[in-house]
Amino acid sequence: MDVDVVKGIGDKKKDALETFGISSVLDLIETYPRRWVDRTREALVSQLEEGVPTMVVVRVDSSSSFKTKTGRKMVTIRCSDESGKLSLTFFNQNWREKQLSPGLTIAVFGKPERYRGYLQMTNPIVDLIGDRTGRIVSIYPQSEKSRISTWDLAKWIESTLKRCEQRGIADPVPAEVIEQVGLVSRGQALHDIHLPESMDVRHAARRRLAFDEVLRVQVMLVARKLLAAQESRGFTHRTKGPLVGAFNASLPFPLTGAQKRVIDEIVADISDASPMHRLLQGDVGSGKTVVAVSAMMRAVQGGHQSALMAPTEVLADQHAIGIRRLLNGLVIPDDGNLFGGREVRVELLTNKVTGEQRRRVLAGLVDGSVDIVVGTQALIQEKVEFRSLGLVVVDEQHRFGVDQRSKLREKAVGAGDGLTPDVLVMTATPIPRTAAMTVYGDLDVSTLDELPPGRTPIVTEWVNTPVAESAMWQAVRDAIGRGEQAYVVCPLIEESEKLEVASAQTVFDELSGGELSGYSIGLLHGRMPPAEKESTMERFRAGELDALVATTVIEVGVDVPNATQMVILDADRFGIAQLHQLRGRVGRGAIASTCHLCTKTDDPSPRVEALVSSTDGFVLAEEDLKLRGEGTVMGTIQKGRSDLRLASLQTDFDLIQTAREVAVRIVGDDPGLSAHPDLRDEIDLYFTAEQEDNLLKG
Ligand code: ADP
Ligand code: MG
What we know:
Bound molecules: adenosine-5'-diphosphate, magnesium ion
Largest sheet: 7 strands, mixed
Structural class: alpha/beta
Distance between the termini: 14 Å
């Protein structure tokens, strides 16, 4: 139902609301206050005490502005209530002069001081409350551009709620769930969040509405998952056999407990006819590759093929090398199977594989003689034909959203023999549990929470003085002197790859002629021709290069156990996850490693501090969520603004978990939900149709 059924909203206001993302009545009442002003706790101006932060409600009398001697712009607002006068001073907030025009009633919160006999507050918190007199006044987000004021919104929302109060607001959540979770009704919650009688009732209201948000997301994810399972037929892989046996026997190390457990989880999935959609998450160095290869061996065992998709060519190369090394000429035992008696064939297919070699690989994929192909996204995007693609492993660097992932799945179906391949998604970075359940909620999740034994913990040092910096280069030279190797990661320049490359070149030149002169140094960046990139990487792997100056192209997957020194320049430009990945490039062998995080000043850098204080990727992921907030973590799942407004991935873990369980029940009871072609619409309907129906009609 369009918002213009609400009294006072005409065409003009309707358009303005639209730019705000509000088009239906439901959107309107789901626009929640940003803050509440508790007028039962306001003071009179005459009661203000110097130095004690207090709220007063005053009327604006006049405003003026001027530049201070130091060039700062200062706005002064004179206000009063019936008991006295107060002036407000704002620095560098020029817009206040326009915002706080004479006649307005505002709530001001700040620390009163006396200046030349006048009572004043400097940069107080200001809320426009119009002529509202309730005990608690809700403050809504306000947009200068769309000319919708917080009291406009308050008025419309209040009248809407009042109109449907008699009939009540439908509650789509089953009664037993409401009881189980201990929620107030939806009608009560909407009332209490907008028109709270006391500050306390807001908490129960928020909890209820937050639950609805996460439930909606979970119903969508669970339904999507069910739909994928219903609509596709998958492979029933033969998970035991001579090849798998030979592979296990050939492993150069015993598997960790976590690796064994996760392999069991995967085996259970792929031996079942419905396709696997599983996320494998594990910290840097936890040994995801061998888990993935172990799954691939199961596909190959039954005469099917496996594809591994990496986000970049360097990584694809790296994976191909790693897999070949792990398989080490493993022969498929001849057990009467058509493909028996030959080596497992691993091929690389990226854009730089051309000519005759490319034709051979493509032909091998069609006739089934290539067992494992490693490549970039191009593997699936191009028309590459497989004889029988049984398993796809996706090594994700940049997390895909739920939508992108289901597209990938569709493409994968076309690449097989009508059956949907099993899909294993590997994340390079651990993600917080709540985010995993939300962003990857349509996947099952396996976690490698144990590192292989024999690792020497990485020492992380924060380098932020010239003295520390020269000590760092000395440490790097000492390490090279012991036959070890170093990475130097150049400053991240997000705006321009060209600038980034230029800066890498500069760092390379400076080091060659300075701190690292006389050593053999390589340069690696995204704009180099692939062949050159590959040969540089190869020389570093082979130990011909002492140090590698690189951009973040080495972020994920590069595995050179002899590299023990990681120098990251301008470390505060990187995110936590990226720093953790980069750090994970060292400490991959038994030799002690150091990660040096360089920053220019000794300004606080919470991200660098986090890295110094923990090497646990899961701890860092939680920290990252805290520092960056939800928006970035939710990323692509957040279509429009309707997903999570009140719910928090940080604090609502229990709600999210319960919502997941409830969603499984709801979707299970109502399979029609998942059969709908556009799930999202259907789910919105599930939550809104009745709602809308009740609103205003009553
Ligand atoms: P990830 O991709 O999870 O960061 P990798 O799969 O690249 O980790 O493994 C990191 C290193 O640990 C590799 O050199 C690998 O050979 C080694 N490794 C993996 N599993 C084990 C294990 N169970 N015991 C000893 N070393 C292992
Ligand atoms: Mg890896």
